[in-house]
Structure formats: C-alpha cells, structure tokens
C-alpha cells in the first residue's frame, strides 16, 4: 500500500515531559501516530511525527505554543524481507528522486517506510507503477 501522509516537525526543549505535552495533543484530537523520530542536541530536540489523517493540526499545535512545519510524506508498506529497502531506494535514485528523510517500522510480515522526497508526485507515480497493491 502506497499513500501520502502528513508529518509535523517541531523543536522541543530537552527536558522531561516535553515530548509528552506534544504528543498529548494528537491523542486529544483522536489522531493515531504512525511514525515518530527525534534527534536531540544539547538543550533542544527536533521531533517528527507522521499521521495518517486528513485533519489539519497546524493551528492546534500553534495555539498550544509549538512552532511546527507540516510536510507531505510517502508511506509505503512492503513485505518484511531482506533487500526490499535496497530495491526501494535504488528505484528512487534511478529516477533522480532524492530521499531527504526516511524512517520506518517493521512488524512481520510487513514494514512501513516513511519518506520525504524531492518530488512527491513523481515518486508516487513511480512507486505505484512498480509496487502493485
């Protein structure tokens, strides 16, 4: 399955409870988080959360005091088998599509890969042509 999903990126202070306060807003809006990644440097961190919802959350996050960036990601579910990520990244590279961010999860028998790419429309077309649902 190949779809587009929303990703929200925020800067958070590196202190206990900061992540809790951020993700609590998603729970209050009854929105399931399908991917999360973070990177911490000294006093602050960057958190990226992917959701599978059409609900627009930027205004809710802003109202709660978070500066946020909303982007579109590609979500692709693949069989959890060695070599599938190599095939996926090669297909995009061969079509001159740059992957700017990637993260995912595996739960046999499948894996969900979340991608930010340089050209979402082109990547979606290529992926749908090469990965039949």
Descriptive overview:
With 133 residues, the protein is an alpha+beta fold. The chain folds into 2 domains: 67 residues, VC0802-like (2-Layer Sandwich), CATH 3.30.2130; 56 residues, VC0802-like. The chain contains 4 helices and 6 strands. The protein has a 6-stranded antiparallel β-sheet. The longest helix has 11 residues. The chain is elongated and about 40 Å long. The model has no long low-confidence stretch (mean pLDDT 91).
Supply the key terms.
133 residues; alpha+beta; VC0802-like; 2 domains; 6-stranded antiparallel beta sheet; 4 helices
Major sheet description: 6 strands, antiparallel
Number of separate structural domains: 2
Please count the helical segments. 4
Distance between the termini: 5 Å
Assign the CATH topology of the largest domain.
VC0802-like
CATH class placement of the largest domain: Alpha Beta
Q: What is the approximate shape?
A: elongated
CATH superfamily (homologous) name of the largest domain: VC0802-like
Number of beta-strand segments: 6
Radius of gyration: 16 Å
Structural class estimated from helices and strands: alpha+beta
Mean pLDDT: 91
* pLDDT < 50 runs, ≥5 residues: none
**Helix proportion range:** 25-40%
Strand content: 35-45%
Strand order of the largest sheet: 2-3-1-4-6-5
Name the helix and strand elements from N-terminus to C-terminus, one letter apiece.
EHEEHEHEEH
For the record, the CATH architecture of the largest domain stands as 2-Layer Sandwich
